[in-house]
Specification:
159 residues; 2 domains; two-stranded antiparallel ribbon; two-stranded antiparallel sheet; 4 strands
Length: 159
């Protein structure tokens, strides 16, 4: 303690403390970094496409795409990138009532009318349940992909 009582000893202690606090703070992950790390870890463990990517490279690229914003929406771009890199067109992130995933496929091994797919996508993702005659229950689970919001939904899809 005698060393700290001298002006030089006290100055060195303060400088050491400031350097320690600076580097400790700089190395502490933000809430979004921690959340993104969890998403990556869970996906790496459970995705059926996990063997198709180099996770070290993917993780690095995802963190480079994470914006400095404190908003949870900052994770959207890296997560969409992850699904695209995996080639996963089924998985997605549901955040504040909206689904984020890789962009829908534009090439199929069979003939597809993308205007119909876009129209179905625009209908929303609410699940409808009900009871038919004779006590038969039903669940209507619509397609959940997001698509281009500029696409108009044809009137016939509302029937």
């Amino acid at each position: 303690m005698k060393q700290l009582s001298s002006p030089l000893g006290l100055s060195l202690a303060v400088v050491f403390l400031l350097i320690t606090v600076h580097f400790t703070k700089a190395q502490t992950p933000t809430a979004n970094q921690a959340l993104l790390d969890s998403i990556i870890s869970i996906t790496e463990m459970h995705s059926v496409y996990a063997d198709q990517v180099d996770w070290d490279s993917l993780r690095s690229e995802m963190f480079s795409r994470l914006s400095a914003s404190d908003s949870v929406e900052a994770i959207i771009a890296p997560v969409e990138y992850m699904f695209a890199a995996l080639g996963d067109f089924h998985g997605g992130l549901l955040l504040k009532g909206r689904r984020y995933n890789s962009y829908y496929k534009t090439e199929y091994p069979y003939p597809v009318d993308l205007s119909i797919i876009n129209a179905i996508n625009q209908m929303g993702s609410e699940i409808d349940a009900g009871m038919l005659a004779d006590g038969i229950a039903y669940l209507k689970i619509p397609h959940l992909y997001l698509s281009n919001p500029a696409v108009e939904v044809p009137e016939w899809t509302a029937r």
